[in-house]
Design brief:
Elements (H helix, E strand, L loop, with lengths): L1 H14 L18 E2 L5 E5 L4 H6 L6 H12 L8 E4 L13 H18 L3 E5 L1 H8 L5 H4 L4 E3 L2 E6 L4 H4 L4 H16 L15 H12 L4
Parallel strand pairs: 2-3, 2-4, 4-6
Antiparallel strand pairs: 1-3, 5-6
Bound molecules: uracil.
């Protein structure tokens, strides 16, 4: 645990002045991620929004409040988990991440995963799901299904910000959080789900784009 904390801290100091892509020009703070360096459960979101950029912490705005409530619904809190994003700097106006930014930043996330070595990664929304599962499938077809990668369990779920635009989405998220709890309690022994057919892909991506518009 101490070892992971130290490693994560020195990784933070190594990268927090990153200028590898244009996003550093407008950022207030680099948002490394926060939580328990020895967490069994890690959440990966998309990118910092306005509040995150100001505070240097992930998920501290309205979507963060939803994430906190969902954690509380399974008797957990953010000190027990680790929360990070695909991008460490805020895209201007909260626009979607672009491929170059993701490709430039992804090695930071991969190294965080490497250090923390979580048993379960819960990807929040399209961008983190596609990156971690290395797929172009949309979130709609993947959400709630369990995958195994590099000895870890991956559970893609909707981004909490989706609830801000469609409050009825909260029930799906609440059920998916119960799923997370079940995986943690069972030592995450679950069969992987087959990936949806490529044919479902186009429809999923159309739905995803609707959900990603104007997030945060
Ligand atoms: N949305 C994200 O994906 N990440 C954050 O840190 C905040 C909102």
């Amino acid at each position: 645990m101490e070892d992971k904390r130290e490693k994560l801290k020195s990784f933070f100091y190594k990268i927090n002045d990153c200028r590898r892509c244009g996003l550093h020009e407008d950022r207030t703070r680099f948002v490394f991620g926060s939580g328990n360096a020895a967490a069994e459960l890690m959440f990966v979101g998309e990118a910092p929004g306005k509040n995150e950029d100001l505070q240097g912490l992930p998920f501290v705005g309205r979507a963060g409040k939803i994430l906190d409530d969902l954690l509380e619904s399974i008797s957990m809190n953010r000190k027990e988990v680790f929360i990070a994003n695909v991008l460490k700097c805020r895209p201007p106006g909260n626009r979607d991440p672009v491929t170059d930014e993701i490709n430039t930043c992804k090695e930071y996330l991969f190294e965080q995963i490497n250090i923390i070595n979580p048993k379960i990664i819960c990807t929040l929304g399209k961008y983190s799901t596609q990156l971690i599962l290395d797929t172009s499938h949309g979130i709609t077809g993947l959400r709630g299904k369990v995958f195994h990668r590099d000895g870890r369990t991956i559970l893609p779920i909707n981004h909490p910000a989706a609830v801000l635009y469609n409050p009825s989405r909260i029930e799906i998220l609440q059920n998916d959080f119960l799923r997370i709890k079940g995986l943690l309690d069972s030592g995450n022994k679950t069969e992987p789900s087959p990936v949806d057919k490529e044919n479902d892909d186009k429809e999923d991506n159309k739905n995803d784009d609707k959900e990603q518009l104007g997030l945060f």
